[in-house]
Write a structure and sequence with these properties.
The structure holds two protein chains of two kinds. Chain A is mainly α. Chain A is built from eight helices and no strands. Helix content of chain A is about 70%, strand content about 0%. Chain B is an all-alpha fold. Classes of the chains: A mainly alpha, B mainly alpha.
Chain lengths: ~200, ~375
């Protein structure tokens, strides 16, 4: 009973906050609603017993990704008039996107009504072993059966990261970089000397 | 405690509910009292190092100073800047305070003395401590003022940077313990150093990890020398500039509760938590309740925190970023490889790992069952 109540509570909150993400006028509020959204998704994960995924969702999305979103959005100079002016221009595009999403939803629900997709293999290897904790069964799968796919995903992410760095890297010759080792190795005797200049002569610069 | 209420003739669900509520009270109320005393201790240590007396007027030895401060703050007028984003401005300190309390749910105070004995305990702590940044960022933005905003920007970048290396350090510990349950991690440390000392810190591969964890936990809680978020010479009071009264007090309490949490994590992950320091039974070490050992270790780390605060000058922001990204991140990454390589060599058949898990499961039977570890209980 309480499972059903909590499920509907979290699911309703999830959808409500998702609606607020797009309804909120202020982008910062949107990001904060998105965080509430992530939280409720994590709570739903816990309800189906996937506590590891739930924690990862909070660590990765709430702890890192959403903070970066917030970081960027907070620095935006929000001009509401301009936001509304863009509305008419982007309206047809938005309609197309909405239709695509609607079609996906209809397809998804249709497929779901036709019967659940059986992800586990017939020989039972991919199905979680009862009694094992989440982390252990996930680890056994990721580092055993799906090792190649897992590493391939890692390589793809690495390539994406290198690509992002290459695209944004600028060699700026006019800026003098900071050499920490050089700075630490500098001693007073390298930088200072005592001088007793004669009157009117000045000192060496 | 659930069993006690069941014996009194309650239904299991209600007994569990009541036991959990009492458990929350038993953790939160002493924690608040502890925070008040730890603020006093912080000021006293700082004063002693600076050759001052510190608070010594209110109560005997000034012991009631924190309560006097709390009362003063409580009686102040709450001022909300007219240009502030009112809702978020008021929510921000509540977030900081709540998040600081939440993580204590999984901290084990003794064998079985834990509110929620979940499998993913360490990940839960990491998840919750990564939320701490929201209180700071939201307060900085909602204040609609220059200095809090700068502070929020700094806090966001700083906390994310150090969380990355903290994550890698925690992975090393999890690899060694073979579990991410905090009780399991503590039990994996029994006699870890030469069979004599309890604690991962006496492992040559994990000692550098502990040093990095200590420094990272200073940065993660924005304590001196990494308190760039509230550098008073640059940013007035940082993100708390516009706050007054209770909302300010909530920041204050949350901050110190976070510091205590980081001290507890240092103790649990590397110094054997509620285990006595030595694994010898010459003196009846093990008869002393675990909570006393844990509290002593927390106080020891808090002393280090205050000591560092009183002696080390503040970092410059670019140096802080350099330390996080260019020193700690590569170093911790190298150590993840080293630790997992060493474990591959020594525990290749996986027996050691299995036995660790068994120890953890056998020992946590008496713990209150949280809904999160129901899967574990199926077996």
């Amino acid at each position: 009973m309480i499972q059903t109540i909590t499920f509907y509570l979290f699911a309703a909150l999830l959808i409500l906050s998702a609606v607020f993400v797009i309804m909120a006028r202020n982008p910062v509020h949107s990001v904060l609603w998105l965080i509430v959204c992530f939280f409720n998704a994590a709570a739903l994960m816990i309800l189906i017993g996937a506590e590891f995924i739930a924690m990862l969702l909070v660590i990765v999305y709430v702890g890192a990704v959403a903070v970066l979103f917030l970081f960027v959005v907070m620095m935006l100079d929000i001009d509401f008039a301009e936001l509304r002016a863009g509305f008419v221009k982007n309206f047809p595009f938005g309609i197309i996107l909405a239709i695509v999403l609607l079609a996906e939803l209809v397809l998804g629900f249709g497929a779901y009504r036709a019967g659940g997709l059986d992800i586990g293999m017939a020989d039972g290897t991919a199905a979680p072993i009862i009694g094992e904790s989440n982390i252990e069964s996930l680890g056994a799968l990721l580092y055993g059966r799906y090792l190649f796919l897992f590493e391939a995903a890692g390589v793809v992410l690495l390539v994406a990261m290198v690509g992002a760095i290459v695209l944004t890297l600028r060699q700026r010759s006019e800026v003098r970089g900071q050499n920490i080792a050089h700075q630490i190795a500098r001693r007073p005797e390298d930088a200072t000397y005592n001088a007793s200049p004669e009157t009117g002569k000045g000192v060496r610069l | 405690m659930t069993a006690f209420f069941v014996d009194l003739g309650m239904a299991y669900g209600w007994a569990w509910f009541l036991a959990t509520v009492i458990g929350v009270m038993l953790i939160a109320l002493p924690l608040m009292l502890g925070v008040a005393m730890i603020i006093y201790a912080d000021r006293k240590i700082w004063a002693a190092i600076a050759l001052r007396r510190g608070p010594n007027v209110v109560g005997p030895f000034g012991l009631l100073q924190s309560f006097a401060d709390g009362l003063k703050v409580f009686l102040q007028e709450t001022i909300i800047p007219s240009a502030a984003n009112k809702g978020l401005f008021l929510i921000a300190p509540i977030i900081t305070f709540t998040v600081a309390l939440l993580a204590w749910a999984v901290i084990p105070f003794g064998p079985g003395m834990v509110l929620a004995n979940i499998n993913v305990g360490l990940l839960y702590v990491l998840a919750i401590s990564s939320l701490g940044v929201y209180g700071v960022v939201i307060s900085g933005w909602a204040s609609n003022s220059k200095y809090p905003f700068f502070s929020a920007m700094r806090a966001a970048a700083q906390m994310i940077s150090y969380e990355v290396s903290i994550g890698f350090i925690l992975i090393c510990v999890i690899l060694y313990a073979g579990t991410s349950n905090l009780n399991g991690i503590i039990l994996a440390q029994v006699g870890h150093g030469f069979g004599l000392v309890n604690g991962f810190v006496f492992n040559i591969l994990l000692f550098p990890m502990w040093v990095m964890f200590l420094i990272s936990s200073l940065a993660e809680t924005a304590r001196a020398p990494f308190d760039l978020t509230e550098a008073e010479s640059e940013l007035v009071a940082g993100y708390q500039t516009e706050y007054s009264s209770m909302s300010f007090a909530l920041f204050w309490l949350g901050e110190y509760a976070n510091v205590l949490l980081m001290c507890a994590l240092n103790a649990i992950l590397f110094f054997g938590g509620w285990l006595p320091p030595l694994n010898i039974d010459l003196i009846p070490w093990f008869d002393i309740p675990g909570i006393i050992w844990l509290l002593l270790k927390i106080l020891f780390f808090f002393f280090i925190f205050s000591w560092v605060k009183a002696t080390v000058p503040r970092f410059r922001y670019d140096q802080l970023m350099r330390l996080g990204w260019k020193v700690f991140l590569p170093l911790s990454l190298v150590f993840v490889v080293l630790v997992s390589g060493w474990l591959m060599l020594t525990r290749y058949d996986g027996n050691a790992y299995q036995s660790n898990c068994m120890v953890a499961r056998g020992a946590i039977d008496g713990a209150p069952v949280s809904p999160l570890c129901r899967i574990e209980d199926v077996q």
